[in-house]
Amino acid sequence: MAFKNFKLETDADGIALVTWDTPGRSMNVLDETSINELEEIVKQTSADGAVKGVVITSGKEALCAGADLSMLEGMSRQYAEMLKTKGDVAANQMLFDQSRRFSQVFRGIETSGKPWAAAINGLALGGGFELTLSCHYRVAADNPKTRLGLPEVKVGLFPGAGGTQRVPRIVPPQDAMQLLLKGEAINLAKALSLKLIDAVVPAADLIKSAKDWIKGGGKAVAPWDDKAFKLPGGPVYSKAGMMMFPAGNAIFRRETYDNYPAARAIMQCVYEGLQLPIDAALRVESRYFTQVLRSKEAAAMIRSLFLSMQELNKGARRPQNVPPTKVRKLAIIGAGFMGASVGYVSARAGIDVVLIDRDQESADKGNGHAKSVFDDLIAKGRARESDRDTVLSRISATADYSVLKDCDLVIEAVFEDRKVKAETYAKAQPLLKPDAIFASNTSTLPINSLAEEFKDQSRFIGIHFFSPVEKMMLVEIIVGKNTGDVALATALDYVRVIGKTPIVVNDSRGFFANRCVLRFTAEGLEMLMEGVPPAMIENTAKMAGMPVGPLSLSDEVALDLVLKIMKATEADLGANAIDQSQKKLLVEMVEKQGRFGRKNGKGFYDYPEKGKGQKSLWPALAGLQPKHLDPDTLDIEEMKQRFLVVQAVEAARTVEDHVITDPREADVGSILGFGFAPFTGGTLSYIDFMGTKNFVELCRKLEAKYGSRFTPPKLLIDMAAKGETFYGRFPPKKLAAA
Q: Is 152 a catalytic residue?
């Protein structure tokens, strides 16, 4: 039988080589075709007496990137339809049967009676890694880029093809929980030390080594199928087990606040599964997987953090009428922390970068940033000196603007001041080559007003990076009313090259991300003025799903900058545009107390010297509160809702204002840009999954109690009346080109 995704060849020694090479894809993924063909290969090789063993490998650079999540999304849709037509028993049975297909096929490999060896030639993640764990032997080609792991928890799922049962039967439960709950990929050295792989060999010897293991008498029995098998961490109810599981449960609660059904299911699967024989344990895993697959959290996270993010990364918003562009040389005007960081990530992506500042000393300081980042990576063993030298050779620093004449893209990252920016544009414009694109990294100033300083506004665009640039994955691309398609295409192509995720927004004060996140920090200040204890403000925000509290985030942004933005908004829009009590608090802290935030070690928190303990809330903060509320009288659920609703209702306003035109960008942008509770799927998914009618009712309740910042926009009221969702009313455009 000929296979579409696999090639099956048996050599003279009776060893079958299965090569996975899905046509038309750069990466193998586990989909319906792959699992059906793999099942057939297991049957064929098991029944063939001439086959002594099986080696499975990949014909691509990586083994497998995991399961096709669009297939799982399709299963969820099928479940919803079946629920309506045939009821919950039939729908649940269908979902259970379908969702455990991978698990059953992998168990079929394990119990086939023939020894299977996985020859891992590159990346193996998710279901791809679970496939290798079901093999009796795992050998990897020596490749520093290879990563192995189970990242499913990051998209609201968990390893449902045996991962929660095989990993804790190979490694001690503490290490297993780290792998499963964090979802981080590990390198080969770590995998070898944990015994998740058996050997690492030169790439040229990979297949031979796998075959040699079979020829040398490799056993076709998994360790846990041996009667003498003992769990690496001892029985669950042993002294060691009882030290691990209660503590693990406490850590889980601290890290997730029980917002993630998949993380809870991982804890349950491991705890219950390790008390059972493997087949019963795999059945338990499948039941939990079916349960999690039905959750709104999984649906929201799969849509936003996998499907939508993938589509945006592939250019869903790129103008199709513009041929591919390439930025060979990039100039960054302003070599401060932000500009230097943009230069570093660009040079790392292979682009020649020139940093320009007011004098050579300032420019050189920016150049030194890349070296310090690399030195830190080298010290941690995550980069080599040769990598650093290669990247640094691409970065030059100067005070001479004449270098602009060779640059394809120029990014301005000077101080957030109209006058300073205007002076920069006047100096740069005469030196630009005719087809160069000019971008501003402004975080709040409207692009249309900045573009007025430009003769050819079609070539002017906003490219807003988030700090720290090295870690933050989002880039906000701001289109002005006169920005042309070539500028947009160039910006998107550049962002793709540097490995970031772009969202395209129309111009507005604060654009999308800052409009929403400033509502979050302002709500924290509002609670402070109401008399809520500062620690309670911070903890409740984290309970709601935010990565940090609003006071901590304000410190990170810098309190003097928050005050500056507040004053600029007041100057442009009048005194009613800002909260005067919040301004008074910030004036006291910044101008009278000299507390600027993390950057000077003093803000809402006191910051210790580097490496000398943890930050702590400033003890005198309570003295600046006009009143103090009894924490026992406060409604925790309502406080959590305030933090999420105030951001989501602002996101809805950005849709009404045509700043956001594609719901994917609001959702992906809110999670990647400011950490909006990932389990909700993002700001607009939070509304959609709650139901617009329910959300508007919640807004009205909070509006009556706390004011107009919770007032739902007319668009939302209209959608609630019609029972519409954002994804229904504004369906995302289909991806035209990969």
A: yes
